[in-house]
Design goal:
Blueprint lengths: L6 E7 L6 H9 L6 E7 L6 H9 L4 E4 L6 H11 L4 E4 L5 E2 L3 H11 L3 E11 L5 E3 L8 H7 L9 E3 H7 L10 H9 L4 E13 L12 H17 L5 H4 L2 H18 L3 H14 L6 H27 L2
Length: 312
């Protein structure tokens, strides 16, 4: 007899009329059937809620916030109402491939040490055309702390037992809530990457990854680092030795956002702070990386539009 524990997936959505149908359909069309799917409309103004309600009816659990609360609060609300043994979330512009939940549940059930499993994924544009294949990387705590990188894409599932211990995403964070959550979760067991490509991560001009946050939001990165280095007692030596580099990475990231906003002075100030904190950010290599990080997402979107125009 095949054991199919309940899986709860939460999708917060706000003004995603262009993408939400593909997202929801990807969950409903999974080969794994024991899924509790909760979609929370975060007070959309573009009739996203009306479209979902009309098209899906009782096939999903649809909730609506009276006012816009943001992704973090909406996710926490959904998780608190969910009943699955395994839980996860799916952004309302991403989507899963049909075998995703089956593969992830199987892997999570067969691994004693894993508390979370996530798949590899493709990067797609607004037209669902693949821009880059296999963009995820295995979770690495040191890399997450020191470089501010986090390569866990759509489709991650984690154990309810781990969530009950950790609690929800930190509602005071907007930029770093997911990364801070994974850092905490890594204390409970392995965060395992499944090499199979089972999801699509969408890039478009209005996606969160392409939005340029304000300076006050960037300070969340410092908050996460401060909390990690000041509260945790058993920090691995390799991460402790790279503390200055970790803070330098935040200044470097702030320089990138400053320059993307056209704030040349602040960009230069923050870049110099990065260099002062760690010499790894000195030289032409890091400067070229700044330029690439600023132009890269827009270039991918432009090339995707060219592919559609010429039907490449």
């Amino acid at each position: 007899m095949t054991i199919t524990p309940l899986v709860s997936i939460i999708t917060p959505t706000y003004n995603r009329l262009s993408f939400i149908i593909e997202t929801i359909d990807s969950v409903l069309n999974q080969t794994y059937t024991n899924i509790e799917y909760i979609v929370i409309d975060d007070a959309s103004t573009d009739k996203t809620y009306q479209l979902i309600k009309k098209k899906y009816g009782k096939r999903i659990k649809l909730l609506r916030n009276k006012k816009n609360l943001g992704q973090v609060v909406s996710l926490n609300k959904g998780w608190s109402l969910s009943k699955g043994k395994f839980i996860g979330y799916l952004s309302s512009d991403d989507y899963l491939y049909p075998e995703a939940i089956s593969e992830l549940v199987c892997d999570l059930m067969s691994s004693k040490s894993a508390v979370c499993v996530f798949p590899n994924c493709d990067l797609v544009d607004k037209n669902s055309i693949i821009v880059k294949k296999n963009v995820c990387k295995p979770f690495d705590l040191e890399d997450t702390i020191v470089t501010q990188g986090c390569h866990i894409g759509p489709g991650a599932l984690f154990k309810r037992s781990a969530y009950d211990i950790l609690g929800s995403w930190n509602p005071s964070l907007r930029l770093g809530a997911d990364r801070e959550f994974w850092i905490r979760m890594s204390n409970l067991g392995d965060i395992k990457m499944l090499p199979k490509t089972l999801a699509a991560y969408r890039t478009h001009l209005d996606s969160g990854v392409n939005k340029v946050p304000g300076g006050f939001m960037c300070r969340e990165y410092f908050e996460v680092l401060d909390r990690y280095y000041s509260v945790k007692n058993d920090i691995p030596l390799s991460i402790l030795q790279r503390k200055n580099e970790a803070y330098a990475s935040v200044y470097f990231l702030m320089a990138r956002y400053d320059l993307a906003r056209g704030n040349l002075y602040s960009g230069i100030v923050n870049y110099n702070k990065a260099v002062e904190s760690s010499q790894k950010f000195r030289g032409i290599g890091p400067i070229l990386k700044l330029i690439r990080n600023i132009l890269g997402p827009r270039l991918r979107i432009f090339l995707g539009n060219i592919k559609v125009l010429f039907k490449i």
